[in-house]
Amino acid sequence: MERAIRFKTLNGDVAKADRGGEVRPWTLSDILVQDTPVAYAFIGPAFFLLLFLVAYPFVLSVWFSLSDARVGETGAFIGLDNFRRLLSSSIFLQTLQNSMVFTALALGLKTIFGMALALLLYRITRFKRLIRGAVLLPFIVPTALSTLVWWWMFEPLYSVVNWTLKALHVVNRDIPWLPDPYLAMFTVILVNTWRGLPFFAITLLAGLVAIPRELYEAAESDGAGPVKRFWHVTVPLVKPVLAVVILFSTIFTLADFNIIYILTKGGPMNMTHVFATYSFVLGLQSGQIGQGAAVSLFLFPILLLVVFVGLRIVRKSTTYE
Known about the structure:
two-stranded antiparallel ribbon; mainly alpha
């Protein structure tokens, strides 16, 4: 029986030769046992997906933001003129303010109610699987479909909310939920909170379940009441999970498009425009692709800062001295 001799080269590759010193050709089985070619074969599809679906659109949007491209025209390089024009636009400054208010209030509400709902789900013992499944419904239903239902509920002519409030004698006239600028902002924040609440509640519930019961029993034996146990046991141990949830939710909320566009289309008087809706209006509806891309790229450094701060908080929360 012919025996082969395996040689390992300096770069880790392996070659085979028979006893006579003649190197025989590579076979498929020889290639499959090599680490380097197999690794490249597995990484290749993911690399090309990232290249064509992430890197190429990002580079293209950077080019558009630095050009005067319009629909059907390639455009020419104009440097930072699009960004300078945006900073002098009252609509864009209003959009910037709307994005900050929308994200901060929605995140605050989701954090408070998400924690309350997680604690409630943690206490429930009967039908807990059924109830936890039902809590996920807003997150499962497609955003466009659920937002259309909310639009019908707040639509001035057929608003079931107004009908209910008047039937209960809470108000005696129709409330302009969507035509009023401030009520419209309240409405989009409410719907975004409803949509994101299950993500907060279920993730925080996973963090609560992981806390050892012995810590609560030790705190209780030391005389700590429910409030002290929550602040000194629950909050510190669930903080890393909460930081990750807030980080992801900040990214999703800042980039939200469906809820705002379906409910208000950025109106009335641009009071609910955020980066995504204003970029869509400028880039696709008005045909100013360069301006629309510049609005989108304003979001990039903000998200980068959010991710940096969020990861630092997570790292600090998970470091115990």
